[in-house]
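Researcher: I'm preparing a figure for a lab meeting and need a structural model of a single chain. I don't have an experimental structure, so a prediction will have to do for now. The sequence is pasted below. Please return the structure as tokens so I can convert it later.
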Amino acid sequence: MTPEEAATASSLLDVSGLCIAPKAGPQAGSPLVADVSLRLDAGQTLGIVGESGSGKSLTCLAILDLLPPGLAQTAGTVRLGGRTGTMAGARGRRVAMVFQDPFAALNPMRRIGRFLTGLLRLHRGLTGTTAETEAIRLLDAVGIPGAARRMRSYPHELSGGQNQRVLIAGALAGQPDLLIADEPTTALDVTTQLEILDLLQDLCRDQGMALLIVSHDFGVIARMAEQVAVMYAGQIVERAPVGRLFAAPAHPYTRALLGSIPPEHGRAPLTPLPGQPPAGGAGGQTGCALAPRCGLAAPACRTTRPFMHQQGPHETLCHLGFGAGSTAAGTLAGPA
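Model: Understood. Here is the structure written out token by token.
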């Protein structure tokens, strides 16, 4: 067994060469997500960051085998604990997901207690008083005040933050090894966002869960993740330990994202990235998907697909390799 094969076998989650494409229509077979590879060890936290439409949520749904109708995984493998195959048996037990909109994820006609006890019955075979006691414990663990009383509440009787805590409690019902959190704080106010992020950190630390967190906010990624993958147009364009990525971003897209963050102090100008990402992902592109928006693009960038360059744990998908990271951020705005 090679070192790479040994690492894959020992990892909790291993995604290799994942491609997702429409089944029919004018874009049938053209990847919306192309050649995505991720690895996550037990107890580790991985962040995925990128603009809306970059393929972050589709990647998570493919991991759980929950792609919407009309889309299919056309290539690649997803291994959980070294094993491939359908996720139906592992979903909710070994891997669970917290979605970004708690009001859409919860049934407005079902009481919170019924929602939780149903999951406990499905995943752990608990019924009756045992299930109710465990549901109350889960609500208490995620910080719901008056947990026993809230068992009789409907989602509309709770705040957005409380409903998100209920979703987290539901995700914990199966005692998973991996928790996927897809933009878990998007619909919440700033104070509640911080509370939810702290809760996720505490739960993962106390229960030994790995966490895959998706966000468009680098602040969330910096706070939560140990490793980070940057996605653009359905591809991972940079991957690194989080400290390394913030200290020395290598890909022009990563540098542009960081350059668009308002500074905490002073009046430093922002460097927005012009244009829009390709609507159909990178599948229909002949060269680098970022080339039409990148001020560093050379003629080869428009005609030839880049390959992944690597320096230790740091990887970047750019023709310039790590040379792009030494270029002043201001030159990124506008195509060459």
